[in-house]
Write a structure and sequence with these properties.
This protein has about 120 residues and is an alpha+beta fold. It folds into 2 domains: about 1-70, Winged helix-like DNA-binding domain superfamily/Winged helix DNA-binding domain (Arc Repressor Mutant, subunit A), CATH 1.10.10; about 70-125, Dna Ligase, domain 1 (2-Layer Sandwich). Helix content is about 40%, strand content about 20%. The protein contains 4 helices and 6 strands. Strand 2 and strand 3 form a beta hairpin. It is globular. It binds zinc ion (3 copies). One zinc ion (ZN) binds near residues 18 and 72.
C-alpha cells in the first residue's frame, strides 16, 4: 500500500461524511502532503475496485467517496454542500416493496440512490 493510499484511507475512515476529491486534496495538504489530483483519483479508483471505498453520487459534477459501511443514504445541504449519512429501515422496506412492484412489470432493479436536499442547521441561521 502506498503512503498516499494510507493517508486517503485515514481521512475516509475518520470522516463522518463522504468526501469529494477537492476536499481530499485540501485535507491531504493540511496534513503536509501535496499529492497531484490525478494520483488521488488513481488511488480512489483502486480502493473502489477493491471494494473498501464507495462512490457516492449526490449532485451533478461531484463524486464523493466514503469508506464502505452498511447500506444507507444521504442528505445534502444545497447552500454549503455539507453531507450527512442517513439510514432508515422503513425506507428500505418501502423500496423493497417498490422493487417487487416494478419486477412485476418486467423491470429488474439492481440498486437505488436516495438523496434528501435541503438546508442544514448552520445555513438556516
Ligand atoms: Zn449548510
Ligand atoms: Zn454515507
Ligand atoms: Zn437504501
Amino acid at each position: 500500500m502506498t503512503s498516499l493510499q494510507r493517508n486517503i484511507e485515514e481521512i475516509l475512515t475518520t470522516s463522518q461524511e463522504p468526501v469529494s476529491v477537492p476536499s481530499l486534496v485540501r485535507l491531504l495538504g493540511e496534513g503536509g502532503h501535496a499529492p497531484h489530483k490525478t494520483s488521488v483519483y488513481r488511488n480512489l479508483e483502486r480502493m473502489v475496485a477493491h471494494g473498501s471505498v464507495e462512490e457516492v453520487f449526490l449532485d451533478a459534477g461531484t463524486v464523493y467517496y466514503e469508506y464502505k459501511q452498511s447500506h444507507h443514504h444521504h442528505a445534502q445541504c444545497s447552500v454549503c454542500r455539507a453531507v450527512v449519512c442517513i439510514a432508515n429501515d422503513l425506507l428500505e422496506k418501502s423500496i423493497k416493496h417498490l422493487e417487487r412492484a416494478v419486477q412485476k412489470n418486467g423491470f429488474m432493479p439492481t440498486d437505488h440512490h436516495v438523496v434528501l436536499r435541503g438546508v442544514c442547521a448552520s445555513c438556516q441561521g
